[in-house]
Amino acid sequence: MSDTHTKDSGNKLLKRVLALVVSFGPGIFAIGYTIGTGSVTSMIVAGSELGMQLLWVLMLSCLFSGLLIFVYGNFTLITGDTALYSFKKNLKYGKLIAILIIIGVSFGQWNSLMGILGISANIIFEMFNLQFPDMTAHLYAYVLTIATVIISVITAFCSLGNICFLKRSS
């Protein structure tokens, strides 16, 4: 009887952990987009070269980011309008500003996704390279092939509209 009880409690724990992980869903990707590979890389390089000398910059960055998130969130809650719509509606050249913001954010996201793709392709290559050391001679071709496969799979998921596995919760 205790063996069955242990198995049931193990299954319940596994289901709870899985439900917790799945509940994050697209939020994990949103965090990745917000932080970005460029930010992580820049922080690592700056930290290794300058130590704690730039800690004040990180503190200011966190302060201003938090302030902007708070202000934009409250603005949207109070007015019911998003920042872009408000720029378009209330500023003299608001439509142009809104378009430039959309272009800038799109460009930034595109660059972040390229960085994530490059890092992912290199990580997968290194994992294969541990098993097949002869792959090193054709590094660029293999990494490019892996990146192409990743792009193809993601494009297939998006074109089919089959991203339910990211949204699923318990």
What does this protein structure show overall?
With 170 residues, the protein is mainly alpha-helical. It has two domains: 2-37 and 84-167, no CATH class; 38-80. 84% of the residues lie in helices and 0% in strands. The protein is built from eight helices and no strands. It has helices at 2-24, 27-35, 37-50, 55-79, 83-90, 94-131, 139-160, 164-167. It starts with a helix and ends with a helix. The model has no long low-confidence stretch (mean pLDDT 77).
Distance separating the two termini: 28 Å
Mean pLDDT, all residues? 77
- β-strand amount: under 5%
- Count of beta strands: 0
Assign the structural class, choosing from mainly alpha, mainly beta, alpha/beta, alpha+beta, or little secondary structure: mainly alpha
Relative helix content? over 70%
Largest sheet: none
Number of helices: 8
As residue ranges, the low-confidence spans are none
The general outline is extended
